[in-house]
């Protein structure tokens, strides 16, 4: 390796210096391609935790950041916030006398101080239609019924207001639940290109260089989970941990804290990784950032997030759950880590060396030594068989050959051309040869499609990590448990016997394949072999000779292969052919069945009678099936124990109820039909 010193970074080799400059370029390019978001309103979804109602159905560990009196011992470390889906109740039932007077549409609106009532209603709403001596279209005033007003006031004060207060609180919970559920669904639909974070430390500042800023400076990785059994939505640290990160790239360099202060702040953030919601630690970070700005600012431990910007920077606690597209800051940090490792003298990976210098396409001696070591310790197959579980073409076979002799192979193709199909074959082949494979993808959907293509025996041995949600974590646990279970149940002698058995079976299949290929080749060669001077007259392939003989049929009047007998045969050629076909279809089972005695034909019923019986049977089956559906009715057992007289009485009562319900549905008040349906449970 060249040890020439570089003028760029003293103390490292020329190759190391090239790699440092390469990743410095990638880091700066990543920063240039990043669109800075300076206003939180530009994010896809924002759920301010200050909007979460203080209700028994809601729990939030962030509340203690501004109110230390709130206990935090009841919250689980993996759950920072939880919302239980509320059960919205209907308003209390109206007294019968109030029903015509109270407005239906306002009765269910808990935002009102009280539901309104009609000053006048038709007399028909109070009297029965059967009274024909009175004009039912005349309007009556509520002032003529003072007891109705008293009953209305009593209903509002004792029942409705209590319900309205609870409903207003539940509606706030429902609104918060709907917003969090919307973020949960959008994250699942958008995939891994989007992330959910908890933003803390809202910087509100009208900077002279960066413009108007209203965005959080601290991002904490989080996840949202839905518990369908409990009906709860919860938010907690991401599966990889909270990983708090300072985001000051939204500020121009001149608006950021000086490097010394910035290093101290980042050290305090590292201490937050174990407990990002530690009150003193979080306040130390946010207050330290506000005081370290070129224009010293203030810190406010508040949940409020409204208000405009000012020339003096203010950092407000204002935590919020944010759905956004993943930033490139993670890549920048990754590039910085690589640069630091290279400057410390880390050995360059072979793939990186191939980028910055000219390297042969075949593996180097060091890699060959590693491969030889692996071959000595890993059981591999010595043959050149391709172990493809799925159908393959010549291009897929070439990929394997190139991968065996090169450090890398690039396969390109538009969607639907079989790339996942090819990868599944490659995974199976390399695993069969004792290799280990890592498969990565930009989206979990592609990995899930690939996993379903693998044979079941191989799928159980794959460690699956498709994302950061609970489903992916369960899939990972299942994979690890499956591998551990396979290891614990491993039996060396049994598996060696299986390998020997499969090897013999494979050898037999190979011999059969070779024989078939030989027969096909012989048949093809016989078809294309050219004969000469057959019968002193014909030349060419067998087909060509047959065509020549057929052309000479009229000229020579060829004799038939077998002269016709004097007497006509008993069996014709078609009958012989049919008998031959029947004989080929005969199996031992059919031969045994033919030995059975046939049922006497005279005892069989007539076709018309048979059709009638089949029709009767089908009708009986349908009637039986309809009757079976009635058995699922909860009261079937009790009704079946009653005698017919009792059942007829019950039937008459039900018909009376249905008649009354039909009359109620034609009532001029819309609420009458609704109430009747609620009473009947419809």
What does this structure look like?
Strands 1, 2, 3, 6, 7, 8, 9, 10, 11 and 12 form a ten-stranded mixed beta sheet that branches. The protein starts with 13 loop residues before the first helix and ends with a helix. It is flat. Helix 4 packs antiparallel against helix 5 and helix 10 packs across helix 11 (444-453). With 682 residues, the protein is α+β, with helices and mostly antiparallel strands. The longest helix has 45 residues, at 146-190. It has 22 helices and 14 strands.
Helical content stands at 40-55%
Q: Report mean pLDDT, rounded to a whole number.
A: 81
Radius of gyration of CA atoms, rounded to a whole number: 42 Å
- The shape is flat
Q: Count of DSSP helices?
A: 22
As a percent range, the share of strand residues is: 5-15%
Uncertain stretches of 5 or more adjacent residues:
1-7, 369-382
Describe, in short, the structure shown.
With 682 residues, the protein is of the alpha+beta class. The chain contains 22 helices and 14 strands.
SSE blueprint and pairings:
Elements: H1 14-32, E1 45-48, E2 58-60, E3 81-84, H2 104-107, E4 120-122, E5 139-141, H3 146-190, E6 194-207, E7 211-227, E8 232-237, E9 245-246, H4 259-272, H5 279-292, E10 298-300, E11 314-316, E12 320-325, H6 329-343, H7 350-356, H8 365-377, H9 394-405, H10 419-432, H11 444-453, H12 456-459, H13 470-488, H14 492-528, E13 531-534, E14 538-540, H15 542-551, H16 553-556, H17 573-585, H18 588-594, H19 607-630, H20 636-640, H21 644-665, H22 670-680
Parallel strand pairs: 10-11
Antiparallel strand pairs: 1-12, 2-3, 3-8, 4-5, 6-7, 6-11, 6-12, 7-8, 7-9, 13-14
